[in-house]
Amino acid sequence: MMLYRRTVGDVMTDEVLTFRPTTPLQEVTALLDANDIVAAPVIDEDGAPVGVVSASDVLRHETGMPDPQGQDGNDEHAWSKAQARTAGALMSSPVFTARADWTIPRAARELRRRHVKQLPVVGDDGLLTGIVTRSDLLDAFIRSDDEIRGEVEQDVLGRILGLDEGTVAVEVRDGVVTLRGHVPEPRLVPVVVGLCQGVAGVVAVDAHLAAARAG
What we know:
The chain is an alpha/beta fold.
């Protein structure tokens, strides 16, 4: 699948650690730590996300440090957070969410715009279906050399260009595609190179292609 066609649904985690607003902070800390994650959604009784609680929220609370972005200020909200004993009292709200049918670039832009590291994913009913993190999106861009070679051989050379198997040898190392062999006519060389450059994960294309002489 080419990158622009991949969606949040393809890369999200659908088994999500969640908390209820009533979950005690001690339990929040223990579960975040045990699962080695930085944040988790807080859901209501229907399963709709109502906030996100993060390890840094908990840490600031435990150490009595103020919010570094200064968003809490010296107000009632900051006081209630300082007194927090539950996920609901400490969580960040409203919660920004993504949809499973979003493209990878759209989700990446939203993470950046909201200055968050993950987005809960909701369905049409507003209920939680998964979570997508910054590293999930990065993984979509980083593909193994074998995956890239397979797509170049099967999709570009085989399905799109209809070249006989073995006429062009494909080698991929660290995302750099090296092509060696023959194509039926000279004008196909830039076409092959352009198509390979469009394959997700390709860093560069090094083409050593000759046009087969017309018999």
